[in-house]
Specification:
Length: 380
């Protein structure tokens, strides 16, 4: 048996700060973010008063996670419109901020489309800006509802695949309320299992090099009172070998038309391990993450992050502002390979769970049929 002694802290309350919100401040409108680079040490808000500031927050991962990036992109367009800035320029900056997460472009195009459509109808710029903001707010609400439905479908699938409860679930990166307008994607399924008394243990991959699992998923598990344990990414194989993983749950940043999934780098090795050990590998993502215009996994553009994220150690400073950062790990001059994502092919995926239901086995035809039921995806 793996060590089960690590217990979640008790009495931890959810943060008072939402992951993202629109604010009308005395100095003007702003998109306000829960700064994820400061978690878990501090729950601090970051004010973005224009689109370039929001782009910077996206690129530094102060705001991250595919569904939340879609919401941020929509609010960013609304912010530019309300401020009277160049909406087309702001839209371009936002959409290019991170290339792999398809939701970002979706949110940008949706709010911008509403803005331009309003102008085409003859309304003035101020009213068109209000339309763009209303569209962003609608996307925010829809994502929260999608999160709720994904949790329901995902929990039902777990019960079908793993009758009897007592689930030991492994997750990678962060896919909870910090990436969503609701309670998340993959993490929301694990949270549903916890609330139903069906979760024995949540195994949390550290998720190097930026530690989204250690900093963010462990933070969310702790504040929800879940039984969880943290492991380094390279320890996952030993858990599978010991029979301590019943299912793997991950989110997605882009799902191609053939069912290939781009997610945080390290997801693909888990899929290979799961296949070998006959463990279900389940992807949970809204239909807005499905990109039917991208044919297959080889066509997904994978973001390459700065090498310093691997060669230097940067952590939030516990109990104080700022960071402990820039500490070199390898010899100076060491080059680093640092893709933000990897691609898992459909044949390694047991099911893709969306707010419209699950696809299993994962095929392009099944995925297209599921997306056709959603008003959020356009079939071309």
């Amino acid at each position: 048996m793996a060590d089960q002694d690590a217990q979640s802290p008790v009495g931890i309350k959810p943060p008072a700060l939402p992951s993202i919100r629109w604010a009308e401040l005395p100095e003007g409108p702003a998109v306000v973010l829960l700064d994820q680079t400061r978690l878990p040490a501090e729950e601090t808000e970051l004010l973005c008063s224009d689109a370039p500031a929001l782009v910077q927050a996206i690129q530094t991962l102060a705001v991250r996670g595919a569904p939340l990036l879609g919401i941020a992109g929509a609010y960013g367009v609304a912010l530019a419109a309300v401020r009277g800035d160049d909406v087309a320029e702001a839209s371009g900056l936002l959409e290019r901020a991170r290339p792999t997460a398809v939701n970002l472009g979706y949110g940008v195009r949706r709010a911008a489309g509403a803005y331009w459509a309003a102008l085409d109808k003859g309304v003035d710029a101020q009213r068109a800006a209000a339309v763009a903001l209303a569209e962003a707010e609608a996307l925010h609400r829809e994502d929260a509802e999608a999160s709720r439905r994904m949790a329901q479908y995902g929990l039902a699938l777990l019960e079908e695949l793993l009758p009897g409860g007592g689930h030991q679930l492994l997750t990678h990166c962060n896919s909870g309320a910090l990436v969503s307008g609701g309670e998340g994607t993959a993490f929301a399924v694990a949270l549903g299992a916890h609330r139903a008394g069906r979760l024995r243990r949540l195994w949390v991959d550290e998720t190097r090099p930026l530690l989204q699992g250690a900093r963010l998923t462990a933070y969310e598990a702790a504040r929800n009172g879940m039984a969880y344990s943290l492991l380094t990414d390279n320890a996952a194989g030993s858990l599978f070998a010991a029979g301590e993983v019943d299912a793997v749950l991950i989110g997605a940043d882009r799902i191609a038309a053939d069912g290939s999934v781009a997610n945080k780098v390290g997801s693909y090795p888990l899929a290979v391990l799961a296949k070998y050990h006959h463990v279900p590998f389940i992807v949970v993502a809204p239909t807005t993450t499905v990109d039917l215009q991208t044919a297959d996994g080889a066509s997904i553009v994978v973001e390459q992050r700065p090498g310093r994220e691997v060669t230097e150690l940067t952590l939030p400073r516990i109990g104080a502002g700022g960071e402990v950062g820039g500490l070199p790990v390898p010899p100076l001059g060491t080059q680093a390979y640092n893709p933000a994502f990897d691609i898992t092919p459909p044949e390694l995926i047991t099911a893709i769970v969306t707010e419209e239901g699950a696809v299993s086995p994962v095929t392009g035809v099944g995925l297209a049929e599921l997306c056709a039921r959603s008003s959020q995806v356009t079939i071309s």
